[in-house]
Design goal:
The protein has 290 residues and is mainly α. It folds into three domains: 13-66; 74-152; 155-283, no CATH class. It has 17 helices and six strands. It has helices at 16-22, 27-35, 55-61, 65-71, 77-84, 88-96, 119-127, 132-135, 141-148, 154-169, 173-181, 186-192, 196-204, 218-227, 232-252, 271-275, 277-283; strands at 13-14, 42-43, 51-54, 74-75, 104-107, 113-118. The strands form two sheets. A three-stranded antiparallel beta sheet has the order 1-3-2. A three-stranded antiparallel beta sheet has the order 4-6-5. A hairpin with a 7-residue loop joins strand 2 and strand 3 (51-54). Helix 5 (77-84) packs across helix 6 (88-96) and helix 11 (173-181) packs across helix 13 (196-204). The longest helix is centred in the last third of the chain and has 21 residues, at 232-252. The radius of gyration is 22 Å and the shape is globular. The N and C termini lie far apart (71 Å).
Length: 290
């Protein structure tokens, strides 16, 4: 028997849960770091449809868990206001005006939306001297008028940020189209995509909203609502972007025509729940937001 020693090669990638442990991060911190582009991931070549983390990326970040954790620290309204040195009410007004953007949200036990913000971004905003007039003294009349008219950009800004994250993770042109469609009501998608084969392809690739509660629960319905573009100009933007992404995907690789339109799969991502969204919201008061 020879004296040769066999050395098992280390895998080139690892699962997100393993990467989070090796980097000393909680899973929520790890996921947010990926969301923000601080940790690079690659498609799972094993066919699982998920993402994996290259070993080279873990080696690059090893030993930086403390700074990485601090860079993804999130705060709610009260802590955000304290961090910026302003009253909570003033911070809420700043957030409603769209001057800071939520990075996450969760529903509390009263079905109110609790928005979370990156502490790092808030510190930068408060330190920027050009923003001093927004944080001290009386709120300018023009901004006060917008607030009295019901302005609240928090959900819209979160959608834009979340869309950008999903687009960065998309593996191809049709996947990008699916991402954009994920922020539109099915009726809007039907109007933009008149070809049933393309519509079925895009619908199947729509991302699910961030998981909150069991399917069909009040929390899950709230996630559907927050994932869907609401303002007319926002809807128009997503419709235009969907048409553009589909045109690019079509030029790259047209959808096969092997299935009769009448046999195409029904829309995915709990489309029935989406269709019932208006009925459910009429039965349940619209949740408050904090």
């Amino acid at each position: 028997m020879s004296g040769t020693t066999l050395v098992q090669n280390r895998p080139n990638t690892c699962a997100p849960s393993r990467a989070a442990r090796e980097l000393g991060l909680r899973r929520g911190e790890f996921d947010l770091a990926v969301h923000l582009g601080r940790i690079r991931t690659v498609p799972d070549e094993g066919g699982g449809g998920g993402r994996r983390v290259p070993r080279t990326e873990i080696d690059r970040l090893r030993g930086r868990s403390e700074s990485l954790s601090e860079s993804v620290r999130v705060v709610g309204t009260t802590e955000a206001a304290a961090l910026m040195g302003i009253p909570s009410g003033r911070f809420t007004r700043v957030a409603k005006l769209g001057l800071v953007t939520p990075v996450r949200w969760y529903p509390n036990r009263y079905r109110a939306v609790v928005w979370l913000y990156l502490a790092e971004e808030l510190r930068r905003f408060a330190a920027d001297e050009t923003n001093t007039w927004l944080l001290t003294g009386r709120t300018p009349a023009e901004l006060s008028d917008r607030l009295r008219a019901g302005a609240d950009q928090r959900a819209r800004n979160w959608r834009g940020r979340h869309c950008g994250f999903l687009l960065r993770q998309a593996d191809g042109p049709w996947e990008r189209a699916g991402v954009v469609a994920g922020f539109l009501d099915p009726g809007e998608i039907d109007e933009v995509l008149t070809d049933p084969h393309e519509r079925a392809r895009v619908t199947a690739l729509r991302p699910a909203p961030p998981a909150h509660g069991a399917p069909g629960s009040a929390a899950a319905r709230l996630a559907e609502e927050l994932m869907t573009a609401a303002d007319p100009d926002e809807i128009d933007w997503f419709r235009h972007d969907l048409a553009r992404e589909v045109a690019q995907a079509r030029a790259h690789r047209p959808v096969p025509r092997t299935t009769a339109p009448s046999q195409l799969a029904a829309p995915g991502r709990a489309a029935l729940a989406r269709g019932l969204r208006g009925w459910l919201l009429r039965r349940n008061p619209k949740p408050a937001a904090h």
